[in-house]
Amino acid sequence: MTTDNEREWPAVGFESVDWQASSEPGVSRRAALKARGPYDAAIPPLIAGLQIPALDSETVTGAEDAVIELARFDSEVGAIAAPFSAILLRSESAASSEIEHLTASAKSIALAELGRKAGGNSRLIVGNVRAMEAAIEMAEELDVATIISMQSALLRNDQPEHTGAWRNQAVWIGGGYANSPHSAAFVPPRHERLAELMDDLVEFARRTDLPVIAQIAIAHAQFETIHPFPDGNGRTGRALIQAMLHRLGVTRQVTVPVSAGLLRDTSAYFASLTDYRAGNVVPIIRAVTDASLEAVVSGRKLVVDLTAIRARWERDATPRAGSAGRRLLDVLQRQPVIDANTVGAALGVSERNAQNGLDRLVGDGILHQIGSASRMRVYEAREVLAALDAFAARAKRARGA
Q1: Known binder of ligand: residue 121?
Q2: Res 95 pLDDT > 70
Q3: pLDDT, tens digit (0-9, with 9 covering 90-100), for 114-142
Q4: Number of domains within the chain
Q5: 274 and 327: one domain?
Q6: Is 265 annotated to bind ligand?
Q7: Contacts for 61 with CB less than 8 Å, ≥ 6 apart
Q8: Residue 191 falls in the annotated catalytic set
Q9: Of 101, 182, 220, 227, which is the active-site residue?
Q10: Is 37 annotated as a binding-site member?
Q11: 5 carries a ligand binding annotation
């Protein structure tokens, strides 16, 4: 039941927009007739100066707990001398991509990062890693250029024509016809409104006088409502969550995989965005709160698993201290698929010394060669890949399963 307080946030308005139907080949006459006439496009409210409505005590307490747990996790993991920042960032990127039905194994993603042959989804997920990196690197300067850069990092290798600026055409979400927004579940605002709306959103996101989780959740929901790009809006909007967590000082050292928490119940997540457009901010605040708390639990489990793997490696590895083979153990946790060229660059050693280190770890059972090539060999740390795949499986598991 919606309370009076929950109605205090302005709902999205709508305007009738003329539509010029295209005469694409292969479009049936029936479909062409349904794609004629005006459609309703959203008019999102300007929010920069708004105050967040009074929230019920359960929502407030949960959001405050989420901030405490996120900061505690960041402090705990940041103090560990292991490359968990890179691992968690990759895990967040993979989970955010999976919300968009872009799925790939940890091995396939690692191969794509290495520039080796991998599936198209893996390349897109690597693009999402770059977008997350851009979001965090530019969090302090959060502005429209930062957001455009996030989306450019996401799509520049696969869809460069869709990067570098706000969209200049209509987009629509859910339903609709292939050649028109008619019957879509939601049609974001006309592109002529985007500059004002995005300037307003950035002003809201840069405020420092609002409850953190509520501010981040509303900024994310407003971004998804505006849908400023031709593609990549969902993933860019979740990168914005990470940028704001860093900018507001909640996380400073690691990327907490909040998208993995959202992935646990995508139906509720998408429904909360619909509720936001109707003027109810509580569901999206609760969705981000729950996702943050679940992300900390899942993230801790991943850190425990990887720490245990590293302890076994230290016990079983035969290379002497300071050698390429021993130093390679650090590299393998953040890059579990690797070749001699990458090892050499990472450790500052010759490719021959890098290969010697790889061979020693193969002999120790820590690494395994992928395939049987005699040149340009690639190796995998199977235990790390298994831990990352287990993390992904936990993220997809429905609540209560």
Answers
A1: no
A2: yes
A3: 888 888 889 889 899 988 999 999 999 99
A4: 2
A5: no
A6: no
A7: none
A8: no
A9: 227
A10: no
A11: no
